[in-house]
Design goal:
Layout lengths: L1 H5 L3 H12 L15 H9 L2 H4 L4 H15 L4 H16 L2 E2 L11 H14 L8 H9 L18 H17 L5 E2 L8 H8 L7
Antiparallel strand pairs: 1-2
Helix pairs in contact: 3-5, 3-8, 5-6, 5-7, 6-7, 6-9
Protein name: Transposase
């Protein structure tokens, strides 16, 4: 489909879109290829690692955090949300750096930032994505067993990997309590989806 309408393969299309997001003067593709938000939410909800989570609120936090990525309107906001999400996922601890609980560590700050975005959106209560989470909680079909595409070192992969590296550094800053949000096994799938983020609607 991509070759028919844009005269290039899908990976080239993604790289060209990303270049335009970064202010490059490369040609805009003649046709836009987009993946629907609800379709991506469905795929994310059916990840094996999320279906193994018994804490419903924890699963909802990560699904809603992923939805924030899907609906980002600028590259800078996408990066900020992704870095915050990765920091929470990779942090053994959260909480504060001082005894007076006035200086939050990076994981705590990131979690508070994400929750504030979630609370400010219109889909917080009784939305279709929440219904989807409930519907798929015990789904037997697993979509995360598809082989992960091996990408060359293109600009999108480099960008996502750099965000992960920054998050890993922030995740090393210890807080004063164990983090209930620590879920490093989610990183692989999150990155796999994000390598194609210019396709998201």
């Amino acid at each position: 489909m991509c070759r028919s309408f844009c005269s290039c393969d899908l990976r080239t299309y993604v790289k060209n879109c990303f270049s335009n997001l970064n202010g490059s003067t490369c040609d805009i593709p003649p046709c836009f290829i987009r993946i629907d938000v609800s379709h991506m939410i469905k795929l994310f909800c059916r990840l094996k690692i999320l279906n193994e989570i018994r804490n419903k609120r924890l699963k909802e936090f990560y699904v809603r955090g992923f939805r924030l990525l899907l609906t980002s309107t600028t590259l800078e906001m996408f990066k900020q949300i992704l870095k915050s999400l990765m920091t929470v996922i990779l942090s053994h601890t959260d909480g504060y750096l001082d005894d007076n609980n006035t200086k939050p560590n990076s994981s705590e700050s990131s979690r508070i930032f994400l929750l504030s975005l979630i609370d400010s959106t219109s889909y917080k209560e009784n939305n279709s994505e929440e219904l989807e989470i409930h519907h798929l909680e015990n789904a037997s079909e697993e979509l995360d067993e598809n082989p992960i595409t091996i990408y060359e070192q293109d600009e999108v992969k480099i960008f996502i990997d750099e965000v992960e590296n920054e998050s890993n550094i922030d995740a090393l800053i210890e807080g004063n309590r164990e983090s209930a949000y620590y879920l490093p096994g989610l990183i692989k799938d999150l990155k796999r989806y994000c390598y194609d983020f210019p396709l998201w609607t």
